[in-house]
Write a structure and sequence with these properties.
Layout lengths: L4 E7 L4 E7 L7 E4 L4 E7 L13 E12 L2 E8 L2 E12 L3 E10 L3
Length: about 110
């Protein structure tokens, strides 16, 4: 179920992110998981939080993901000249919805 494109529809102050499945990123933050532990992310380049920004600019970056356990994923991708690692605890995964809790960690280059 995880191996598809997900776009963010809600990011709350508790670091919970809600994604829905989609055919493409469109004009949204998103993740695309591949079976070979590759990941593609669409991330904003002109803001860290796109809420309220009228013209968000996005960049697509390629990285890797791994399964730490059945409910915890580690993603890693380059962003703004640094390697960003995110620890995502899966709170809910269905065919159409993915909810994760983010534990944000910057890795050293």
């Amino acid at each position: 179920m995880l191996l598809k494109t997900w776009i963010a529809v809600k990011i709350d102050s508790s670091n919970n992110r809600t994604y829905v499945s989609a055919k493409e990123f469109g004009n949204s933050i998103g993740l695309q998981f591949f079976k070979d532990e590759k990941i593609r992310a669409q991330v904003p380049t002109n803001t860290s939080c796109p809420s309220g920004i009228k013209e968000v600019k996005f960049e697509i970056v390629d990285g890797t993901w791994s399964k730490l356990s059945d409910s915890v994923l580690i993603t890693s991708f380059p962003l703004n000249g640094k390697n960003i690692s995110e620890r995502l605890k899966i709170l809910k995964l269905t065919e159409n919805e993915l909810i994760v809790k983010l534990d944000y960690k910057k890795q050293r280059q």
